[in-house]
Amino acid sequence: MNKTKIEWCDVTLNPVVGCTYGCQYCYARKMNKRFNWVDNFSKPQFFPERLKQLDQKKPQVIFMNSMSDIADWQEEWLKATLDAMERNPQHQYMFLTKRIHDISRSTNKEVERLKAEFEALKIAYKLLNDEIAKGKTAIQENVNVSKTANANT
Fold first, then answer.
1. With a threshold of 0.85, does the pTM exceed it?
2. Which residues contact 97 (CB under 8 A, 6 or more apart)?
3. Strands 45-46 and 16-17
């Protein structure tokens, strides 16, 4: 696990690296270019050996997918991760996705297990969207103030 400066978690784990989505400003893709963890970031890869790090006794808040989108995870990857998490209830686990609709429509058995056992995924998605909405509102307010100021000069 890696210590992080992310204020809402203690460490990151990332058993999967890569994302098929291709966001223009993707932090994870930039970091992969810098450190070359996987050859093709557009083809997510699973690193099951990383899950052994969950065996640490000290409780931590762990961001599980800062270098991937859980919507890309294959069923066996998700199963292995959820099994490791269940064996280590001392931790709190966080996942984020930009594609909650892909997950909510999935028939993947392990995604159903995730939705049933880890409601925090939906909560994190809502909080993220609320923050984005606040940011858009603040940006729009700044644009309106600028327009008003320019019109008065």
1. no
2. 65, 69, 70, 71, 103, 121, 125
3. antiparallel
